[in-house]
What does this fold into?
Amino acid sequence: MKNRDNSLIEDFALIHDGRCILKTGTWSELKNAFSGEVEDLGEVTLVPGLINAHVHLELSHLRGKTVQEKGFTGWIKSLLSNPLYDLDTEAVRNAVQEMRDSGTAFCVDISTRNCAQVASVLDELGMGFYACCEAIGVQTPKEKAKFFPQKEFEYGRAAGSGHSLYSTGAGLLQRVKKANDAAGLPFPIHLAENAEEDEIVAHGTGEFAGMLKGAGLLADCGNKGLRPVEYAEKLGLLDEYTLAVHCVRVAEEDISTLLERKVNVCLCPRSNTYIGEGRAPWELILKSGINTCLGTDSIASNHDLSMWNELEYLLKNIKISLSSAEALALVTTNSARALRIDESYGSLEKGKRAVYTTVPARLEDLLF
Ligand SMILES: [Zn+2]
It folds into this structure.
């Protein structure tokens, strides 16, 4: 188990009541005063339950139903040939179970049509969550519009999110951001994901722009030649509550802007590869000091929803070396900070949720 200063603690033990951590220490210290049931996990590295900062559980029925490495336009065409929003609750339940079995304790789900239903499944299964209702389209929201269900859940909260700069009108994005701000919620948005987005934001052109226009979903980004991060900055969408998802196509100036604005970045390395969008400048983003975390994205653009597999892929392909603490932070402490859930998640300390997992044997060598 890792300490707050990221040193490994030998003989670590924690006492919990099934819900919360009551005490932590070494087993030698704690055992004399303890009389309850004991679970010895053996020679393992215990870590806090992992956080998946970006997933779309609504698409859980689409495993293996999309093309790989054909670029975003090719991928979206294959995605749209499926029944997208016919929610398969059983598939969602299985996906949540899969996440839990691979160590995930909290996720940020983005659903376009089925936010409340997905939230109910997450709640029922005890997975911590933000269930985000994704705003998409160019309509001007009504004065008193609500952007997410005003409903209480036991294990999570509903929130709003923006699909993207190119598919969600500027006014709508700003309103959703404001509603989330007022509720103290993070604001996730797909940002700088691919070349198609670059072209639409800068010039409003391209095959994908035509597809969006046909569906009534093409946002007017001004055609001023701006890069996505520049445009998002101009709209006032970037601050410490923003979770910028992907950031594949960011210039060095964009990285500086994201850092200055204290934006949190969620990288989805395997999804970007699956779609064939290239990859984010992980090294520059991480070295800049931007608070960075990881997400799997949906099963329609990934092979599974395991955060260990996401981290393993990054570690095997990144060109700088990360300490074990820096690597684990991408799926624990950084994510908890980005999402403002560090009171309950991200580390194994008294008062936090008793959710933990162990480092898989195959990752021990990569991490330590
Ligand atoms: Zn996504």
